[in-house]
Amino acid sequence: MAGVLVAALLAGAACGGGEDGGGDGPRAVVVAENADRPAQKVVFRGAERVEVQGLDAAAARRVNDAFRAPLEWAATWAAATLLPEQKAECGDRSSEIRGKVRFGLKGELVSAATAIEMAPCFEGEGGLPTVPVTVDTKTGRALTPEDVLAAKTLTAPGLAQLWQRLDGPRGDWADCELEPLRRADLFPGRRDGDPADSPAPAGLLLAPGGLELIWSTTGTDCNNFTFKAPYAKVKDLLNPSLYGRLAASGATGT
């Protein structure tokens, strides 16, 4: 069975403010899992994830499954990509999966990114992605790109506009000769011949200072970039309903 340790109380009930809250509202905490998955030849070692407490059972299951999903994906991916010769090299040892949580907004909307790391039981290297997840504790569901961005933004011209307003390591991006953002980049899918679906290469994090687009994939090169913009700078590119909630919470600074 998984060993779960509550690491830190990191979120209160007020959306977006960033202060730890009290009272009876939902609370987001970081927990660290230590669990052996022998069938997948992986073991979680202090793998952090977010857990939201204070919700009804059905909502809690949906929300916490969404925050657990990056770690579950990592275990599935590790098992699916393990080659026979690598399995033989591992013997009775398992690859170790760890995760580190970084919070964005903390409150009614809880947004967090999990940076996944794996120490393989075989000779090799290769990074795993940082995966952002945002949940709405009022509805008990994870936000999709359509919930975050306006419909017009999820088009080629809209994504080009979004890209122009984001600040980040553009020089490194150009040096990597990466292609312009596509709608498909914002959604999970099977890429590069992998035997399992992967998280969206371009994940969206709602941070106290603004929107973050985290480009993060498997691999060792050109696989981890973060671009940012204050909410006011991308107001017209966000879902109007979401922007209204952000403004009401004070996250936009207005």
Describe the structure in your own words:
By secondary structure, the protein is of the alpha+beta class. Helix content is 24%, strand content 31%. It contains six helices and ten strands, in the order βββααββββαααβββα. It has a seven-stranded mixed beta sheet, with helices on one face. Strands 8-9-10 form a three-stranded antiparallel beta sheet, with no helix packed on it. Mean pLDDT is 89; it is low at 1-22.
A few lines on this structure:
It is built from six helices and ten strands. The protein has 254 residues and is α+β, with helices and mostly antiparallel strands.
Largest sheet: 7 strands, mixed
Shape: globular
Cα end-to-end separation: 47 Å
Rg (C-alpha, Å): 19 Å
Total beta-strand segments: 10
Q: How much of the polypeptide forms β-strand, as a percent range?
A: 25-35%
Largest sheet strand order = 1-2-3-4-5-6-7
Q: Which whole number gives the mean pLDDT?
A: 89
Q: Provide the structure class.
A: alpha+beta
Catalogue the unreliable spans. Answer: 1-22
User: What's the helix count?
Assistant: 6
Oligomer: single chain
Helix content: 10-25%
Q: How do the SSEs run, as a string of H and E?
A: EEEHHEEEEHHHEEEH
Key attributes of the depicted protein:
254 residues; alpha+beta; three-stranded antiparallel beta sheet
What is the topological layout?
Blueprint (H helix, E strand, L loop, with lengths): L2 E9 L15 E11 L4 E12 L3 H24 L3 H7 L4 E9 L5 E11 L10 E7 L4 E2 L2 H4 L7 H10 L4 H6 L26 E6 L2 E7 L7 E6 L10 H10 L5
Parallel strand pairs: 3-4
Antiparallel strand pairs: 1-2, 2-3, 4-5, 5-6, 6-7, 8-9, 9-10
